[in-house]
Amino acid sequence: MKIVLYDIPSKGRDVCWSPNTWKARVALNFKGLAYESEFVEMPQIAPKLKELGVAPNESGTPYTLPTVGFGDETIMDSKNIAQKLQEIQPEPPLYLDASFASEVDDIIMKIIFAIAPVLMSLVPRNLLNQESADYIINVHQRYFGMSLDEIEKTRGGERAWEAMEQEFKSLIDLLKREPGPFFLGKTRE
User: Fold this and answer.
1) Distance between CA atoms of residues 129 and 127, nearest Å
2) Contact assessment for residue 174 and residue 103, using Cβ atoms and an 8 Å cutoff
3) Which of 34, 60, 155, 166 shows a CA-CA span of 20 to 30 A to 84?
4) In this predicted model, what pLDDT tens digit does every residue of 6-40 receive, in sequence order?
5) Which residues have C-beta within 8 Å of that of residue 103, sequence separation ≥ 6?
6) The pTM is what?
7) Sheet with 3-7: strands ordered across
8) CB 78 within 8 A of CB 167
9) DSSP assignment of the chain, as one string?
């Protein structure tokens, strides 16, 4: 079965950078599965996924990456992709039902929200091709009612880094619950 990971290109070359698509990429690599990457500029995500027959998300942004094509089936969303990977190749396991998984998800979301005011202007400026940069700048300006520079100035800076640091401390505390370098102690997850 041909596996295709749909990802967002970075400025000037097709390399991965998005933490969202990295989750699927890491899981594919962890499973040892061969796959191809197809890079899609942000304004082309919805048209591409519609073309592939992907149903829109029920809430939030209708079409997002990561999305992975598994032969004739195309799946959007990291959790759905992980479940499919576990189904087609159970070993090594992804431990999707591990007791800590929802806690890690919650902390990661808090980290993302804490640092978002800083990253929202850095990503289009430093990582995205012009087509995607223009697109995401317009999306964020419409959503927040202010420019990305204003968001960074009013919500970013030192307070964002401090908030993120607090959440990383929570993640470290969670990691320390079990002896060993992993959340499951000596078992890599």
Assistant:
1) 7
2) yes
3) 60
4) 999 999 888 889 989 999 999 999 999 999 999 99
5) 174
6) 0.89
7) 36-39, 3-7, 67-70, 73-76
8) no
9) --EEEEEPPBTTB-----HHHHHHHHHHHHHT---EEEE--GGGHHHHHHHTTPPPPSSSSSS-S-EEEETTEEEESHHHHHHHHHHH--SS---TT-TTHHHHHHHHHHHHHHHHHHHHHHHHHHTS-HHHHHHHHHHHHHHHSS-HHHHHHHH-HHHHHHHHHHHHHHHHHHHTTSSSSBTBBTB--
* Nearby residues of 9 by Cβ (< 8 Å), 6 or more positions away: 15, 39, 40, 41, 129, 132
Q: How far is CA 121 from CA 112, 149, 169, in A?
A: 14, 6, 25
Q: b/e for 149-159, b at 16 or more Cβ within 10 A?
A: eebbeebbeee
Cα–Cα distances in Å, from 117 out to 18, 107, 113, 130?
16, 17, 8, 20
Residue given tokens 């202007």 in the structure block: 121
